[in-house]
Known about the structure:
The chain contains three helices and five strands; from the N terminus they run ββαβααββ. It has helices at residues 26-32, 60-63, 68-75; strands at 3-9, 15-21, 52-55, 85-87, 100-104.
Amino acid sequence: MSSIKVTFAQADGSEQTIETEVGRSLMEVARENGVSGILADCGGGCACATCHVYVDEQWQETVGGPNEIEFEMLDMVSDLHKDNSRLSCQIKLAPEHDGLRVTVAPS
């Protein structure tokens, strides 16, 4: 499998860039690498919104938007929901995501 790099930014401006294999969810990568703010209480089942991220503008088309179920989960955090909101558990990393940058949403 090939590897890619993804960057998680925090509200305070700090960043964490991680090299990982394709085929994994962004949430799994975040949890395994101790990314602050990615709690993933449901373990990736799209049943909570504790892995909420904002996809950087230049990556939105490549990553795509949420499906209906994910959109409903994001509605649970409507005060933090933006047009570029996604649940990191629903982003399966592919080779075209090399360099992906997301910001962890406040909890």
